Give the backbone structure.
Amino acid sequence: MSNMRKTTIKLATISLLLTCNIAQASSEVNVYSARKEALIKPLLDKFEQSTGITVNLITGKADALLQRIRIEGKASPADIFITVDAGRLQRAKEAGILQAIDSEILNANIPQNLRDSDNLWFGLSQRARTIFYSKANVNPSQLTSYEDLADKKWRGRICLRSSNNIYNQSLVASMIDNIGAEKTLTWATALVNNIAKPPAGGDTDQLKAVAAGVCDITISNTYYFGRLMNSDKADDKKVVEKVGLFWPNQNDRGVHMNVSGAGVTKYARHKDNAIKLIEFMTSAESQAWYAAVNSEFPVLETAPVSKALTSWGSFKADSIALNKLGENNRQAVELMDKAGWK
Amino acid sequence: MNAILNRYKRIHWLSGIALIIALVLSLPILVVTSSLFGGFGPTLAHLIDTVLSDYVINSLLLLLGVSVGVLLIGVPTAWLTSVCEFKGKTLFTWALLLPLAVPAYIVAYTYTGILDYAGPVQNTIRELSGLNYGEYYFFEVRSLGGAITMLTLVLYPYVYLLARAAFLEQSSNVLEVCRTLGYSRKQAFWRLSLPMARPAIIAGLTLALMETLADFGTVQYFGISTFTTGIYRTFYGLGDPTAASQLASILLTFVAFLIILERYSRRQHRYHSSSEQRPASALIQLSKKQSCWAWIVCLIPICFGFLIPASVLSYWSITQASFDGQQFIGLAWNSLYLAFSAAIVAVLLSLLLVYAKRIKSTALVVSANTVVGLGYALPGTIIAIGIIIPLAWLDHRIIEFVDHYFKIDVGLVLSGSLFALLFAYTVRFLAVSMGAVQTGFDKIKPNIDNSARSLGHTNLQVIGKIHFPLMRGSMLTALLIVFVDVLKELPATLILRPFNFNTLAVHAYELASDERLIDAAPASIMIVAVGLLPVILLSRSISNSRAQKAL
């Protein structure tokens, strides 16, 4: 190969690499999100409009995105990692892919138990996982707590989602913290004995099963019920008519809560923009958006909530430190395997 | 003497390139299987104690059920549309391919939407009869049987496609000789046609089963714990990616074992048949009554695998779902060009690899080709992680190099690019195109190559003048299957795609996994529509290429 040709190739390579570099240098922020595009993009668009900072987005499954960030290492383009449960935020913390952020706005807007004690991640919206019952077959006075669902009186009357689901894993993780692993295993085993059919489908499917009379009780995140309430489809309205919402454990620890949240990655190249974006997500306007669009509970206490949310009444929420959910997650899955929770 | 030496040099040169390509493409699989040497943690012990036997039993039952299903549908329909003559045959010939365009999990969502306890069918039963749930009999869609049915409905085209090609290639002379020797038509089928088509049928079955093993969406939605859901559970739930890779490696070992077993079982058989077209007179003319049966046999899979789900999705899209047309054009375009580029790359590489094996079938080349083909059985997310690791490693070397010499931070060049996606698709779907290309090569007797070479043609000339024209049908088949597979692919696309880049499959999945099945319908029907066009065009082109050959 002649020298001339070598130089040309070298130059071509460099100019190609340079273009990549220029594309990255502009004012932007890169988001890896486990929250679905439809449930985050509108908020990101608003941020773009009000700040002029371009937001680039990839959505995917939390653990896969986490691995991608870890493997990409120092060169990772990710600035923000968003998940829909505290367990994965804790996992990201343990994997060492996040950095501590000291922001007065975030500290003021987010209650202490909804953010990481070392400021590595921040809760952005809350979801409650509660009990739903068939209005026709269950008197709410029969209901008391999650623990009570293991009672013989519910034999063959409960629908459960698969234990593959992170929200069930988090619920069990919180119970391990509250009542201990041994009691939780006894509880889970008895609960599985009470199910009406093998676990399958999502939360909405369980709510529909209760409405269709397949079972009398189920456990679901409240926003799925909120969506059915806000739907204008006749079938969905029928489900809402037939199903009631119950807040369990009001005399002790309260309802199991989880958060969707975000953290700034360790090697973020647009750290300032990243912080701005997370702060924006905790503003009153954004927080109201979470409630209105997806029936989630805001973390900002002063944020206005939607009609659906107020109609469920106020309730006592479990104030367990959310990193416990992540720390106990593995144990929870093992325990559910042992209990035969498919 | 010189000429002979030259020929050998050339052979080595081609094999060398093929080996390098095979090695690069095996990297992700090697990365995944390297987990086996990292020692076994407590996770595997826990799984063995509790749920692993369930995973294995369910997976085996699923494989067994799908095998029976795809063979029962694929072989008879292939035989009817290749050897028999009846009204409407031309239509069925390509319509039987349609279910290929529908992703399995979307068929599963659709049937669940209609048939489960909250769907319109059971609602109507309850309203009309006044009975409550449980007081009437209705089968449970979300069951192992349901999963087997769904997967069979969309995977039988693999067997149909390859078996049909094999039946078409069978010389009518052989069959006629068979008949003159006193065999009945039935005996001729069981003793000659079927055994001769066996390699193709098994190749189709292998593809269907590998896809069954890799399936996550359907079984997960139906609540069936299989080996693959177990892999994901280990990764996501137990938070142990290493143990997940180890499980995936065990799965691969099982698949490799099956493939080797199958090869061993037909080690002494070579099937080369002179491939003249069957004259019209040799086709079996079906009577009216027989045609009726043929219609039923062909219509059942088309109806359940395509017409019903497509109609339901269209109905949902039109009446209930909301969607943005502008956005859809972008999504469809992304899906289309990605699938098309991946198909071209996969077919070209398959040609090279299979050809290298043909000219010099050393143990090294054969095993490299086998390893490359294993990607098809791996769950997409696992293979995606296996791809990010070597790409990111290379990226980091590039970054160090450029930083050292030019003091510029280039960032990631390969990871998170379309290149990474194409690489992933090639690794994942090479088995499919290699299978089809291999079948094409197998039909060309090696002595044709030899005669051409002895007449002074180089290898490249042999490929261009003899192989290409003879294999047009097989190559188009390979192109078609990879195209449709990429169109439907989800897990690897999801994790490897660049920023702000969506495809139809990603869009449909996001809505469906957010429990908004109805809103996922427009994207799903678009996947089917985009997949449909090439299915029709290519199946025509395949029959045309056969017709030309007949002339």
Remarks:
- The first strand of chain B starts at residue 84 and ends at 85.
- The mean pLDDT of chain B is 84.
- Chain B touches chain A through 68 residues (CB under 8 Å).
- The radius of gyration of chain B is 25 Å.
